[in-house]
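FAQ: What does the model actually see?

It sees only this:
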Amino acid sequence: MKLSSNLPRLLATAALFVSILSCSENLDSSGVCSVLCPAIGGDVKNITIDAVVIDTTVPSLSGLGTEAGLLLASRGDTLDTRVIVRFDSLPEKFTPTGDTAQDITFVDSAYIQFTLDTLSIKGAEPVTIEAYDVDTTANDTSTAAVLALFRPDRFISSQTFARAQLTDTLKYFISDAVVLDKIQHRNALRIGLRATGPASSQMRLISVEGGFGPNLFFRATPDTTTVPQTVAPFSKTPVGESILAANLTDYTVIAKAPPEAPPSVLAVGGLPARRVYVRFNIPDSIIDSATVVRATLLLNQLPNTAIDPTDTVLLLPEVVLAGPAVIDPGKAAQIIGTISVDTLRLTPGGSGIKNVELARAFTLWHTQRPDSLPRAIVLKSLTEGNTAIELRFSSSEDIAALRPRLRISYTAKVPLGLP
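And it is asked to produce this:
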């Protein structure tokens, strides 16, 4: 598929999209020249149409390790996720104050410091976090290979935290002997974290992609007045794939997740994270020859009680900026732009008709022909990849009364011009 020839058009569309969104939605034009902002005239017409030609659930992220958070969860048979952090460039020497560089032969007070999203914590009971050596030459993206390393002979250490100890800065102490051994023989330390305890627990640690990734600290001398060594996450593999290696500096591994929605159901969120792609066929008479006052996508929500049914999910509609050359909905769903200032607040356990406002998308579509920019949107969760909760909606495969529909309010197009 050739996209290079469409790049200038895509960039122009994106620039135009930004300029459109910079306009205010304030309809009060009392302080503006009436020539530039004429009043909308004529009766407002309301129609509800079956305009969906494609609606499907697609993967929401571009790959493993791209999420802004690391989900560490132990919720019985419902949810089990682990956290992987790679330190593939450990220092082999240190320089004491006023001295020359020396080999590291001593490690003391080793710990990994995480930034914790305290609002994400679930469970009031103490939680034990176990650390395992997950260093392997197996396929970097093989979940099965990594999960197989959470076994007794790979155990490193554990630490138990009371609920009150789970603050925004989490220090996780690990075995000094293991860190020293990795420095002297491997020059790499790959840690896998697993949560256990008497009750279910869940927390979100900020990842490198989230801007506050974990760091490893240790002292290379018994002198407690020395400044600790600091090691940032880094991944050397897969070799020759720098972007993927960077993503795998820290990531979440899913050992157990709630069942996915049926193929005939539209799903937003969940683990692995998903989003919804919707393409419309809208009459040209509305796009080109009318002023759209309001446009609403009507979705029938289906209750999902698998996990946290009363938690709030922020649903965000975005317009697809991918041109017609991108025919794969999964790929097109990654090239998007925001069309809503406000998000729609829903709960997974909710049901009934939900309204998703799309008026700004119509403003953009008015400036672009459908053969250059398809009429398509994406529905996504603002916390995709960081939680297992999932919203579900009826698709166009459902009965007629429950399918997605468009409700449009419009008037005759008002021409610009001098009186």
